Amino acid sequence: MEIALTNTLTRRKERFEPANPSRVTMYVCGPTVYSYAHIGNARPPVVFDVLFRLLRLTYGEQAVIYARNYTDIDDKIIAAAAKSGEPIDAITRKFERIYEEDTGALGVLPPTLTPRATEHVSDMIALIEQLLAKGAAYKAETGIYFSVAADEDYGKLSGRSQDELKAGARVEGEDDKRHPSDFALWKTTKPGEPSWEASFGAGRPGWHIECSAMIEKELGSPIDIHGGGIDLIFPHHENEIAQSESAHGHALARVWMHNGFLTMDREKMSKSIGNIITPRELLEDWQGETIRWALLSAHYRAPLDWSEDLLRQAQASLDRLYGAVLRLKDVAAAEVDAPSAFVEALADDLNTPAAIAELSALATAANVAKKPAEQARAKGELLAAARLLGVLNEDPEHWFRASFGDEAAEIDRLVAERVAARAAKNYAESDRLRDELAARGVEVMDSASGSTWRRKG
Ligand SMILES: [Zn+2]
Questions:
Q1: Model pTM?
Q2: Is beta strand 24-28 parallel, antiparallel or unpaired with respect to 223-229?
Q3: Among 170, 215, 261, 280, which has the highest number of CB atoms less than 10 A from its own CB?
């Protein structure tokens, strides 16, 4: 099957062809682990999890090597440690664990590799030595800097010219760099900060060099796909390209993919604005699959406006799918592949809205299937497609129970009373209970194996 992906570097949708189909490599920039991620930060791991699943389906589970790093040394982490008095590694390990729990609750598969920056400092030092030897970097009092002027390709990912870069460069207070758009590869030790010995002087790595060194060490360049949020195009990914390509003389990544912003009330969600909500807070009120579905409801390149209404729609869509599975509770699903129309939607630049529409059509097919063989096939196709999107992992009865929270036990009791009333042929009581359940938004489904319930569609 042919996969097409939009490449930020060429600004075109291109047919994806890995350099080696038996070893497909993907790297996505992971979190800086010093506080809770917000829901906007959860968009890349969920989007690239769908791509990971599609690549595994296409090339084989063992053929895809997906690395997502942890940035566990950074200015923000040092500041958080100074503020709380906790050791740096206690903070970073704690927030790594929280990140894994939260992304796990959103159905994100563990990547193949999760390298930590602090475990690759010697690789970063070696890379910086190469850049110094090639004249692509220089030493100043405050650190080692990459010389943007020495790299004529600089700006090719973001499409910025050297002149624009000069005008837009942020002037940082203590810097003694030669040029405003030069960036730090290494920061000279400051009192009280973590520090590593290096041939060019003790210090700690800058953020951009971390990813360049981890990609080279863990995957080897050029990698097939490099992903991240759109806000990483400049300067982070531009700088990764500059470092790696200047050092190695070949491309860092063949395809660059970026997901759009997540907004709240049409404003970018960010810690500095204060309009953030964390997956952890959302998981108190919503099931993980509902949050995942909401994140996938827009095309990954488009902005996504986050709201309660978006979550309610996501839950209604999933309720409908789970309702179809529940209706076929007594039917064994046939062992079938996800239907090609569904897979083709995902293969077309990860078109999740189209894939979701296909999934909905599969639920309809399951709902109208009459013959046992048709039902088994419809259920099998629905579940196989859902697996690729990372949903319908719950038992359907548990799904509806969980979505009613504390009220579920009360509903169970009413359903059991109604079963007893029917058994006793007390139809007036049975009807009364059905009405009471309906008033709570519950539909009871009677089958040969007993009575189940779901949220009314
Ligand atoms: Zn990165």
A1: 0.94
A2: parallel
A3: 215
